């Protein structure tokens, strides 16, 4: 008993370093597994809201997943294969209560350009994207997304929405064999208008009309007032519920109509066709493929074929998901960890590839539904995933009767809000030059979407480099020329600054002394130091002074270590002016 007491005493009086290590380990574990933060305080009241939200999102994701697989050029079941892994993993690793992971219109469009409708390529692309995203999270490379500016993102999303939306017109019209390239798509769709199928057109337009009507009604509802009668509140709740699951209602109704016409031998609609039944097998993705003509395509050849998709798709997936998570985190007053979000997207894509998923990311539309339904924790994603799994297990034979026109209507209404040109006047008012990367991204994306992103990033980068290389220099005359640097001083800017100093101080008669106000300068490099050495020599030859004011300690340390001849610095511009005045008086 004495030994036991001694042991307890030792545990109870651990040194502060050990207690600190234990607290740090616990904190680190909660950071890596956010579920440990919210699960211990989970309440029964939350369960009801999570079940309701998860079921509502599940009824939304099933028709959307089928439609987005069509956008990606894959059999429709691959949309469902891609829709359930994210719910389970995000519940454990995610830091947002609202976000839902799965196939989206933009990711599906990007995939369509690289996988060419080949499921083997699509699944392997998901694996490679997941590995790249996981590596980014482990190396904490989320800062790379900061180089994709807002105008580039908006230009890309607007162009992608137009491309996706118009790409579904062929299904509304019941046309086949239309090229995927946007301009060819426009030409051949117009050229083959006389071949449109009446059944598909009527069904597609009716579905569009219903979806638009329900969307408008939902937007006009407003908030439920406490003073409203029970009947009014009930009616408002019914309208909101029907509007929220409008995609599912449209697809179910269209499928019933199509099944009825097929049963009596009338083939009025273009149908999805036979789909694989049941859950996908859990197995490692194929690393090679044998084509129909017996040619074997190796792993290295597939990687070469995927090409730029291995850069564009992981980055766009991360960008889209983090932007959504931050938006809803700000709206609902909670913090998200960007690197943790990248990690969970990467893990979802890696493990998703084992169930034949193609690349996924956060969905804005389904996340909005999740938030509006009142989800309390990421556990709602588990309910959504169960709905998808049950659909795969029991409903796949019925999916063969879904008319493509109804899925096209779902896609068009889903991407329509992304076409937001109201941003253009705002950009014009704030900074007109930012319209350049927006316009370049938007226009080039109609040629190839991925090239639009690259072009926008390049233009934004060049604009940024120009601002670094040509910082604004404010000049004022106090008897002595004072030049205030408005930005950092690095080697691209030094030639411009040096020319400006020579032009205004040394190439005039008589030559003038200069005070460089450097209180905005936070860094300096060897090229700058070397050019300053030459300037100091030239100022001495012209018998005038070059003084430095407001140098930060880190910059001053570099300049002192360079041992520049005749280097002088003061804490303020006034002190420099007094110094120059005394030099002139002494002369």
Report on the architecture of this protein.
This protein has 587 residues and is mainly alpha-helical. It has a 5-stranded mixed β-sheet, sandwiched between helices. Strands 1-4 form a two-stranded antiparallel ribbon. The protein has helices spanning 2-12, 16-32, 35-38, 44-71, 77-81, 85-93, 105-115, 119-138, 150-167, 169-173, 182-191, 198-221, 230-244, 246-263, 299-306, 309-331, 338-352, 364-372, 380-394, 396-399, 404-415, 423-430, 435-445, 449-469, 491-506, 526-541, 553-561, 573-586; strands at 101-102, 289-290, 296-297, 361-362, 473-477, 481-485, 514-517, 546-549, 569-570. Helix 6 packs antiparallel against helix 19. Helix 26 (526-541) links the parallel strand 7 and strand 8.
